[in-house]
## 1
Amino acid sequence: MGTQLMLAGLEQGNCGEAWNLTHPERVLAIQRRYADAGSDCILTNTFGGSRIMLNRHGNAGQAVEINRAAVEIVRQAFGGRDGYVIGDIGPFGGLMEPYGDFTEDQVREAFEEQAQALVDGGADAIIIETQTGLEELAIGIAAAKKAGAACVIGSMAYDVTLDGSTFRTMMGIDPERAAQFMEDNGADIVALNCGTGMDMVRARQAVLRYRESTSLPVMVQPNAGQPKLINMQVVYDETPEQMVVGLAALLDAGASILGACCGSTPDHIRAFRGAMDEYLSKRYENQSV
């Protein structure tokens, strides 16, 4: 979403979430392209929509309005057809005491406010995404459940280790521990998104490790390859044609919900949609034989 907003004119460092109020037509145009590409689920433009994050841009007082508007924009993007609006809660962007300046109560209040605004706005689910530690994840899941979210998704950001042997979050959490923690804390879906080196192959490995640790459905949003700096712009190096090659293996591994994260575009999702439809069609044909 951040890349798409910048392509639409958002200046580096400015508040993209505020566009839900100031430039809703631009946000709608982005979301509509994903709906038209075949998305069944679309995340709201609220990754940095907590009061703590918005306060950095002087928009904390509009937290409720920004999050509610984001839900309405996605609903409009579906154009009347069935589709799931997933309220997006990203990291609060700091560290809690004793390592940082924010108290647990401050983070809890910010997440509870955001989650309630998203649910009140009509979000079908809440995702607590790009998490690296369990403390913040637990607060987010609890906030979503308190708000009455019909579905709560916990999503971790993993990094491949330097020797390439495995992957874990920045705070050292592996998929098995994360999956069990999310299930114990009441999440309905376990997920992964973003992270360094988390391509389609690594995402498949994460799905298999999740499924060994929990019976909950698994959602996967790998990156579109690796970021490279070209002409002072960050560009991800996997095309839709390259990325979609790994889709069947992800589905075979047991992924229930499949999307893409950093660097992905509507064209990536369109390729996924076509490949998923073909995969499901063949599977149903084989079952009926």
Note: DSSP finds twelve helices and eleven strands in the chain.
## 2
Amino acid sequence: MKGRDDAVPASCDVLIAGGGMVGASLAVALGRLSLRVTLVEAIPAGSPGQQRFDARTTALSRSSQHILGTLGIWPQIAEHAAPIRRIHVSERGRLGTTVIDADEEGGEALGYVVENRLLGAALWRELGDHSNVTVLTPARATTAAVAPDALDVQINQGGVVATVRTRLLVVADGARSTLREALGIAARTRPYEQTAIIGNVAVDGPGADQRTTAYERFTPDGPLALLPAGAGRYVFVLTRRAALVEAVSALPDPAFLELLQREFGFRLGRFRQVGARSCYPLELVEAEAVKGHRAVVVGNAAHGLHPVAGQGYNLGLRDAAALAELLAEESRRTDARADPGGAALLERYAAWRRPDQRKVVAFTDGLVRLFDQTSLGPLRGLGLLLFDTVPGAKRLLARETMGLAGRRTRLARDLPL
């Protein structure tokens, strides 16, 4: 695979710190431009992962599908992606429900569920086709110092430290970003005192409608999401308060299946097999700024979200698509002032992304807090009933969920950069 043996360049136009799905997506987009790009990732591509049943997945919005399609990634994963044609929201013990249906939104699906390993492999294969992208892995970008019209970024490869001078640094190394902190960009962290238990579960005999329906079910102990993953398999995200998670995660498989069944009910049939479970403490992380001196912060490094609405990668991918579009415009300038890390470009990026980021953060955080208030139970049930009947309300939510609201990037509109 391209990139493992790439030599450390002395300089580049754009250095992306973090080669996860957002960082790699940005690198693929920039690979079509005349810019010299360096991608730095701590974990080598193709490292051993989980078995197929236990594979971790990502829910892609329709907007993300279009972006990945324009980048040439979607055709590589489409046949393995499970469509979401309906989203069913309910609360245990309440009558109110709401359903968002793809047929009402004029599309084949509201989104898709795809295994991370397949999406990651497709992104890294695509990187191998772009000679202007240098990939350094395993490696970490640790610090950055101001240089004339650039930043000097230190790269650590197995204890060997080198310096790369870049005109723009993109921080994409996750919610716990050490590089963001090194740049002096603070982040607000708000623990939810909850932990997500994530895994895969097989179901006996769901009908055709259920096999393409995503479920969000709120319970007194926390939300439970079920996403269709194909072949009678569903991804579950079970949220529990921190004090309870150790006991719940340690349950033997039969007892854990009983817990899932009790929380969700029998709408899908009987849960019959559960895979390996992973636990992730949940918190909201918001960078206080998405730009600094010749630096931008994208993806989870800018906004680490609760998984309740499945918006993390989708929001980060829109970050990457917007930044790529602005860099493409800048790269076509012929005057001497063209600068991928210039203050004016970074301000345009921040102004573009700020409304979308704030809206999605407020939505996911508000959803968690609304259903965490047990005293509001009767009002929530009534609210779900009313929401399902108010003209235009579901369409507005659907467009937000699909990433189709607000200013859309060229990549999301199936247009090249």
Note: The longest strand covers residues 187-203.
## 3
Amino acid sequence: MYNQTKTPRKPDTKSHEGGASYKLDPKLELLSILATGFGNQFYERLSDRETRLDNLVKEISKKDPTFVAKALVYTRSVTGQRSATHFGSNSLTPYLSGNALGKRFFSKRNKKSNTGGIIYRLDDMLEIFSCYKHFNPGKPMPNSMKRGFKMALEEADSYELAKYQGKNKNTSLIDIVNLVHPTPKPEMQETFRLLMEGKLKQHNTVENKNTSSGIEISKKVKEGKITKEEAKTELKEKKEENYAELILEGKIGYLALLRNLRNLLKNSDNNEVIDAACKFLTNKKRVRKSLVFPHQIDLALEMMLLEGADVPTKVKKSLDTAYNLAIPNLTELFPYGKTAVVYDSSGSMTFQSANINGKRSPKAPLKKAALMAATLGKGVDAEIFHFASTCRKVDYNPLDSINTISNLCRSKAGEVGIGTNFDSVFNKLNGRFDRVFIITDLQGDRLLEKWKYGNTHIYSIDLCGYGSTVFKPGEKVYQLFGYSSETYELIKRVEVDPKALLKDVESIVI
């Protein structure tokens, strides 16, 4: 009577293609939305996604608001998502009233001790409060938010206050200061005075220095001191000096260098500066600290090539090295067995989602899937397949660069139809692999029966976060969400501990 037979779980929802599916546990569904972010998806509008996230936060917070708080902080500080965490923070706010968690949650994240709240950068305050005002017009800032923001401002340094002023935003840092009334430390009082008077200048950034140079040179032209042609030459030289100073002295941010790489190559013929930039890009500590996504590095090179830039070979090699540094070393990830990586090339994966501002994203799910497939394929010497209506192997050269393999994978879209037939994957693989990665949006037209994959380890990597799966939850099905370097860290551990993701979230200290 004590060792009773377990009741098999039955499908309890339908996919967007109408097939039977399993609904994710609420906590996993919450993580799936946060990790995959906001925007209009192929099967889901932004407004529907917001509603689903709001409902999930409320459902879980009634019993466990601490988990929701940790999930938001984890997603913002570890995987780098912003808009979804700002929205989720507002949904959580009513459940923070009257307890100590609220103040801590809205405080500043200490990157050295890895403790603290949702404010990873000071402009997170501007976005969170703007979101609050949008959904709560006329209501005052909640006390928990006010106390947390006050702490964040009091702990900020001059560089942060100058960089994230938000002068051209509807909600600026001055607005936040006026609402929460921080008490600056004695050494910061002058900085706050300049901030409130609109005189606090940003320093040591490419944009600021180049803007200042442009203004200075334009003034010379107006005064007749130099011609327009001379101004072009002088501005080019001045920009080169600015890049040289910031790069050689290590004052530029990693993402700022990626964004400005095209301009650096355009304005500098100095090999010393370009060599320093390459060294900067391939600094392992800087890569990890920046939270840069591997596909952001790939995109930086792609955009330069699309614009016809003459990219030196050493820069291409540095970006390729940087990409590999943005993910953990995968060569010893699986010491035994055969691995297959299968990415979804169906029609819904080629859809370019629109972000919250309505602009089309250049990063369709297929692009992320192809990049991840190439990374895993090369990193663990895996066979690569793609599927839609049917499944087919992708023959690639493991000696090629990640970019080359990724582009090959993307080019296969449409070759095997536009449907989403998960059965075709396991009919093709035929039990030949110890583990299989499925990189997909998990929206099929029928349920995938357990016998199809048997005892194979299944890594289900959900790139869209629709809240359901065709895989019957089990001890050898591992659910991962979104695309960041942390995904690869989790891959290392889930075979040993299937609940690694949930444990990582629970371990967050606020």
Note: Residues 100 and 144 are 8 Å apart (CA to CA).
